[in-house]
What we know:
This protein is of the alpha+beta class. It has one domain: 3-Layer(aba) Sandwich (L-fuculose-1-phosphate Aldolase), CATH 3.40.225. 41% of the residues lie in helices and 14% in strands. The protein has 8 helices and 8 strands. It has helices spanning 11-31, 87-99, 112-118, 130-133, 151-158, 182-204, 214-224, 230-245, and strands at residues 40-44, 51-54, 70-73, 78-80, 105-109, 139-142, 167-170, 174-179. It has an 8-stranded mixed β-sheet with strand order 4-3-2-1-5-8-7-6, sandwiched between helices. The two termini are 25 Å apart. The relative contact order is 0.16.
Amino acid sequence: xxxxxxxxxxxxxxxxxxxxxxxxxxxxxxxxxxxxxxxxxxxxxxxxxxxxxxxxxxxxxxxxxxxxxxxxxxxxxxxxxxxxxxxxxxxxxxxxxxxxxxxxxxxxxxxxxxxxxxxxxxxxxxxxxxxxxxxxxxxxxxxxxxxxxxxxxxxxxxxxxxxxxxxxxxxxxxxxxxxxxxxxxxxxxxxxxxxxxxxxxxxxxxxxxxxxxxxxxxxxxxxxxxxxxxxxxxxxxxxxxxxxxxxxxxx
Length: 251
């Protein structure tokens, strides 16, 4: 199969998806969310439910460009691009995309504060801070199952991606963040790490944590779902920073 065999694919939108995903990968490196050449981001190809963009295994995220990204199908065939995918990357992202058609953008990282929280018995406290409350009711948790080297582990991870999920906390492992597009996924990635950083710092004081009433937590969570402008503005600002500090991701 080639992209020419997919008449519904919008190539202009695909080009923009490539640019945005490359920007997200470079931004993750800029903010310290990456881990060596590991971890992976994907973006469903516009007009297709069986093709997705995936970063190749080997390059450091800070050097990736739009043209470096692979287009991969559900069988693992590289439909467009040069390079190879890493096994756990393919299995995890295929599982997430297949679990929910609206999971268009899927980011997986071992970013430090979120990963630290994933190792704690209580896990991510979505009532602790304003940033955390935006995730209230939208977090799934999955016990560690080893490296995702087989399809069944990818499917197991995908099973945690229901219609309400924007974050999957992978215990003792890391996180998966889901968005409708790169801007939304990036916003969630950024504020998740900030919320987890606040949680780690607050817990490290040893002081009693302030409990927020349930109705306020719920109201704050609902208010956050109505912000359709903020993620785009944040991502635009991040791309402007990249243009200053690490330009060329759109190549």
